[in-house]
Write a structure and sequence with these properties.
heterodimer; A: Collagenase (Catalytic Domain); 4-stranded mixed β-sheet; B: alpha+beta; Immunoglobulin-like; elongated
Chain lengths: ~400, ~180
């Protein structure tokens, strides 16, 4: 070989050796990953076997006996979902689990992240109908659950509701989402799931005690998102939430109307009051405020109603044309004059416009109803939704 | 030989089309409205539900999710959420104060039910003029980029092998002469 050829070949040889060494490293890394994944899979099979033994032992005990167990799992397992296919399943507990259920119709024990672990089967297991599927969060790689002997099977549950994991919790279900007004409550500023759930219950009750929602309860589904750590709205004079973040969270449930509940204590709110707000289909509610504020905001959001309280200075400065709203009219009220039960009262956002009733939820919170005209407007907006199916 | 085999396997694997269900996923598009101008900020495709838009206004901006052939997969009307009610109640007198604020700038998101065939989002103003188009194509081709390393490695190996072959040929020819 000539000298110049030798000089040329050496760097190329070193480059080739480096590339081959890099290739071996990458191959080696991938091979180690594969081995690790296989080991993990073997371990999950062992976990399923352990579960089956625990369930079998529970079934062999006396009827009604309850035991609590703690099982060690991989730290990488975030949730464990138990599915009882003999009972109706909530389609909203876990969005991704629904895909897994279709892929593995004969399995009832799923580990999240679902792509990393193959699901397995447990025998003689059952779950209560109102929490099926049951998804539990692991803590430091450990899963805590209870087994209750129900005779021929063992019911899996948990004493710790904070451990339950659900993309979307159904509060009230009346029928298919295509036919119903789906309202979803999203938390911000909560540290406790039970507190959020209680507030949702309180707001829902207030909603269904008020017409036109009371009469149309069977057109409305209510959901809540229990992920209390994920949305942080800014609270100043009013509430500001990143709409992209709100929608990312709210879309875990059906969401025709989104209500962000912002947790605030009454004492803190008395020192620094905060305004609730409504824009598009999103209401951001200060929970320390009057319970009827949500109803007022729904009047704007669903009914498209204007404020019936008067603020001439502000509304004239923005050039509001109150007549463009269904519940405000000019003098003599031609929009509703034919309806005998209605009047024509001065003041609707601006003092030179008129409203159909002396008082209503769109004027003040002294009145606990929208009034017959506003009820008809809101009811009309809900008419596109079907009866219970 | 073996690296070549691995490379071939990787190419086959990465070219496999992964099926995405056309139900159960949503596309959320983050938009910014600034003094009459609408611009795209971000998007995400995730498992979830979209609204049914039964309460959508009869007129307004139109959002369409289109396929590569321009077929409209889903469409709905929306209003720019630049009018926000900000209100508070008085605990003693139970009055409500506040009002409707007009925003010159706002950030908001719209939600589509997602389809595999979707390649772009198109938004029209109330006069039906197209004001924004957001391509989605690159979203569906997020592949394992490590496959390109193997192609590069193969190219370098092939190039070096060819160089060595040519060099030896030259040497053989020189020897013979």
């Amino acid at each position: 070989m000539s000298n110049s050829a030798q000089v040329q070949a050496k760097p190329l040889t070193y480059a080739l050796i480096s590339i081959i060494a890099l290739g071996i490293l990458i191959f080696g890394f991938n091979a180690i990953q594969d081995i690790t994944e296989s080991t993990d899979q073997l371990e999950t099979i062992k976990i399923a076997s352990n579960f089956n033994i625990l369930v079998k032992n529970s079934v062999s005990r006396s009827f009604g006996s309850i035991e609590e167990h703690v099982v060690a799992l991989f730290p990488s397992i975030q949730h464990v979902c138990f599915v009882d296919k003999s009972k109706p399943l909530s389609p909203y507990t876990s969005c991704l689990l629904n895909d897994e259920l279709e892929k593995y119709p004969d399995r009832n024990l799923f580990f999240s992240p679902y792509s990393d672990f193959e699901p397995l089967g447990i025998e003689n297991m059952e779950i209560e109908e109102n929490e099926n599927p049951l998804c539990l969060v692991t803590q430091s790689g450990r899963l805590r659950f209870s087994l209750t002997n129900t005779g021929k099977t063992s019911r899996i549950s948990t004493f710790n509701t904070n451990q339950k994991s659900s993309d979307c919790t159904t509060v009230k279900y009346t029928g298919s989402t295509e036919d119903k007004l789906d309202i979803v409550f999203v938390p911000s500023g909560y540290t406790n799931r039970e507190e959020f759930a209680k507030e949702v219950e309180k707001q829902s009750q207030s909603l269904f005690e008020t017409e036109p929602f009371k009469l149309r309860q069977d057109k409305i589904n209510i959901y809540r998102i229990d992920r209390i750590d994920e949305l942080q709205c800014e609270v100043d004079d009013f509430i500001t939430c990143n709409d992209f973040d709100v929608k990312k969270l709210a879309t875990f449930c059906p969401n025709d109307q989104i209500i962000v509940l912002v947790s605030r204590s009454k004492i803190r709110d008395a020192l620094k009051p905060v305004r609730s707000s409504s824009v598009g289909n999103v209401i951001k509610l200060n929970t320390a405020d009057n319970i009827q504020v949500l109803l007022h905001e729904l009047g704007h959001s669903i009914g498209g109603l204007a404020d019936e309280y008067v603020d001439d200075k502000y509304y004239s400065s923005i050039g509001l044309n109150a007549v463009s709203f269904p519940n405000c009219d000019k003098e003599s009220c031609p929009k509703w004059v034919a309806e005998s039960e209605l009047g024509c009262f001065k003041g609707c956002s601006l003092s030179n416009f008129y409203r159909p009733t002396k008082d209503s939820l769109m004027k003040s919170l002294n009145e606990d109803s929208f009034g017959p005209f506003n009820e008809k407007i809101i009811g009309g907006r809900l008419s596109g939704y079907g009866e219970s199916s | 030989m073996k690296p070549l085999l691995y490379l071939l396997m990787l190419i086959l694997a990465t070219n496999a089309i992964s099926a995405v269900t056309d139900t159960g996923s949503v596309l959320i598009v983050d938009l910014d409205w600034n003094n009459g101008l609408l611009s795209y900020q971000d998007r995400i495709i995730k498992c979830g539900h979209s609204p049914d838009y039964a309460l959508a206004p009869a007129e307004g901006y139109i959002a369409e999710l289109q396929s590569i052939e321009g077929k409209v997969l889903t469409t709905f009307t929306f209003e720019i959420p630049d009018k926000e009610y900000r209100e508070i109640s008085d605990p003693v007198f139970k009055s409500i104060t506040g009002g409707r604020v007009i925003l010159n700038e706002t950030q908001f998101a719209i939600v589509f039910p997602y389809y595999d065939e979707a390649t772009k989002v198109v938004i029209y103003n109330p006069r039906k003029f197209k004001i924004l188009e957001v391509p989605l194509v690159e979203e569906r081709f997020v592949e394992d980029r490590t496959s390109w390393w193997w192609l590069l490695l193969l190219a370098i190996l092939a190039g070096f092998a060819y160089y060595q072959y040519k060099k030896r040929q030259k040497e053989v020819l020189t020897k013979n002469f």
